Amino acid sequence: MVEDKLRTSNYLGFFLQADGHSQ
Questions:
Q1: What is the pTM of this model?
Q2: Within a 10 A sphere around the Cβ of 2, how many other Cβ atoms?
Q3: Which of 11, 20, 19 is nearest to 3 (CA)?
């Protein structure tokens, strides 16, 4: 389950980074 959490965190970080670049 730890791997899933890490993957979710990485995905969220990537999404947030992309959103920041868009703005």
A1: 0.43
A2: 6
A3: 11
Instruction: Give per-residue pLDDT as tens, 2-22.
Output: 999 999 999 999 988 987 766
3 state SS for 1-23: CHHHHHHHHHHHHHHHHHHHHHC
Four-residue CA torsion sign, 5, 11, 14, 18: negative
Residues 6+ apart with CB under 8 A from 17: none
Compute the chain's Rg from CA coordinates.
10
